Amino acid sequence: MPVFKTPFNGYSVKFSPFYESRLAVATAQNFGILGNGRVHVLDLSPAAPALTELVAFDTADGVYDLAWSESHDSLLIAAVADGSVKIYDTALPPTANPIRSLHEHTREVHSADYNPTRRDSFITSSWDDTVKLWTVDRPTSVRTFKEHAYCVYNATWNPRHSDVFCSASGDCTLRIWDVREMGSTMIIPAHEFEILACDWNKYDDCLIASASVDKSIKIWDVRNYRVPIAVLNGHGYAVRKVKFSPHRRNLLASCSYDMTVCLWDFMVEDALVGRYDHHTEFAVGVDMSVLVEGLLASTGWDELVYVWQQGMDPRAV
Amino acid sequence: MATQSPPSPSSTAGNPPTLAAETSQQATGVQQDGPPEAAEQPISSPSVFVNSEPMREEQVQNAVKFLSHPKVRGSPVIYRRSFLEKKGLTKEEIDEAFRRVPDPPPSAQATSANQAVGQVKSSSSNIQSQAPTQALQPQPAGAAPTAVSPVSTTMMSRFHWYHAVLAVGLLAASGAGTAVFFKKSLIPRLKSWIRKVVLEEEDDSENKSIAKPSLAEEAAAAAKAAAAAASDVAKASQELLNSKNEERRYFSELMNLLDVQLQEMKSMSNSIRKLEGPSNNSGRTSLVNQEDHRDSVTGVKQPYANGKADFDMQSVRSSSPPAPGEPSVAPHPKSYMEIMAMVQRGEKPPNIRDINDLPPNPNQQLPNPRLAPKAKPWEVGQAQNASGQVIQSQVSAEGLNFKVQDNGLNHQSDDDSSVPWWQRKNVKITEVGEDEIKAGPYSVRTNEPPVQRTWVPPQPPPVVMPEAAEAIRRPKPSGPTEQSTSHQLASQTSEVTDELQRITKISEAGGIEEIKGNGSVQNSSEIQEEQETHA
Fold first, then answer.
1. Chain A residues with CB inside 8 Å of B51's CB?
2. Which of residues 38-67 of A touch B (CB under 8 A)?
3. Is residue A315 situated within a structural domain?
4. How many domains does chain A have?
5. Predicted TM-score of the model (pTM)
6. Is A172 on the interface with B (CB under 8 A)?
7. B488: Cβ–Cβ under 8 A, 6 or more apart, which residues?
8. What confidence category does residue B334 fall into, taking pLDDT thresholds of 50, 70 and 90?
9. d(CA A130, nearest CA chain B) in Å
């Protein structure tokens, strides 16, 4: 399975929704504490299992997250630690990039997500407690959602309802928003500790997974949100990212500070169905490909990016 | 929003599948939720994502008690809201609690002021007309504590002032009362003295002796009255003290309750930690982490907390104090600790460059999309009904982009990617729930050769447009050579992989008819290419 070594510590990895073999990696120097950042666009060379870099973009501050555009195959959104949101055209050389830099957040932008149904807008969440809605063609944000009492670590769109998204915050709540409404439409006090990630189930649009510092992942049904429908324990430390599979209703992947990437089936009693411990530092980014079933990618603070097929050993040659 | 609740709880419970079905049929993945849900429920927005519970009175009252606490009143509103949200209150309940909280204190103040005034009045009248009114005073004094105790917590800070005012007023009243008494006693004394003087010639000694006892009597009466007044004052102050003690008791009870709750929570978290304790002792915990218990293992903010609150450097992530009593901290890499230490000392790590990452041309035109968006796997089942859903194949050759019409096939016309290595499946996968998925899984996944042999170059792809494949292949001369060497192996596995692919595409596109046509095309083109490589 191919490995790519990044010069900086990895933060996020995302598969392209247009090209099966393409993915982008967000990295930050010095663990994201203080330093530059870099966005790598990698290609899985079909010949040998290898990852080659197509293009890379340097940033003044660390890049915490990426989102591929769903409308333009070459556009990439980067969430940067200096509070700016940068848009890159991967078909243009680095000297012509970025094509946009949107600076409205007053603190680090921690996540970016592109709307998969409407395909014209994206949301960014930041440590300034807000979530902002943008479109690629506008120089300013369309809306700002300010209700959380602490950093918003993640915001993700509902895969079926084009106006609904969910946000996960350090104030220990999940909030569901509708862009047509003034404020949040639902507040789920999901954990006793900070919630680092959330994701919607692609096949049941009422299920949300939340990943928290308390090492657990909880699956919530918004129709009955007082009690989670499943609690997934097994990680040794905080769970950093969670991602529902685009191909299977019950499968989700997660990565954690315990350096492992885990696969779960939340409908089963013994939910942990796979564990990959290929990283030697915090595993911070994980993604499941929408175009290729079972293809996983992960990155971590050990400056490595792995791409492997579910069931295989990521470190196998 | 959530107030339009009556039909929604029942309807949402039963209808989400139909709702989803409706919305899915509506859309080609764009703008789905308006009309069908409007038909379903009175609200046009997806009401599943809205709180539809009625307000819970008990929660609201608990929230009111919480918000009335003096310490809470001093905290920012956002933290009060956040606390209540974490307790599970809905927005409406929180708003209602905020609405209710400012009201009680002003009215309680008014009642207690009235009580104070009443007390003063009653005490003065008591002193003026001794006996009967003594009963009145205990009543107001008794009423005052009960009136004041419900708002004891809010009145605590002001009570001392009122206490002082009351005491002063009472003393003044009693002083006035004694003054009045003395006056009353003085006037008869004067009168008697005048009488004595007038009648001095007639009966000096008799009058004197009569006057003295009366003087003495009246002096004694005055003294008694003064003593009574003093005792009344003492009683009043005593009762005020008692009420104050009562209030202190209430307050301490409240604090105790809060403490008990805190203790319970702590014990719960402890027990949780104990339960998870064994799994955590992986031998990787370092001294640093055990000391830095305040470090939260939250997202990226946590690394910067490191037990300290703030950095001076503006360019460094500044942190907020993490919550106490959090789960065990993950051990951070050594170099991470070094960098943190460096940053805290105010040094900048050496390897940072000055990079200008601003757009060179802020008005750079957005590129034209080269590919049409693909349908998502979870939308595929719905896309069947949507006409004209053209899924275009992808070409990942450097710089070359082709638009290849494809009937629901998702493959690359690259030279050796019919089964790219990343699409190979391993039989070791224990997939669960294989039968229930809309965008079906590979039902013949387990047909893969069980032996994990060394990597084999994949077959030439089954392409729809061989000309395109030709054009792409030219720049890559290395491709065909690899294939020719392991051609025999490849041909053996080709059938299996072809089967896989065909079935894959069947499940993906959901239409068998389409595939059949393509299948034949694939076979013919494959044969062509195989012949080519032979030559």
1. 185-187
2. 43-44, 46-49, 54, 57-60, 64
3. no
4. 1
5. 0.58
6. yes
7. none
8. confident
9. 14
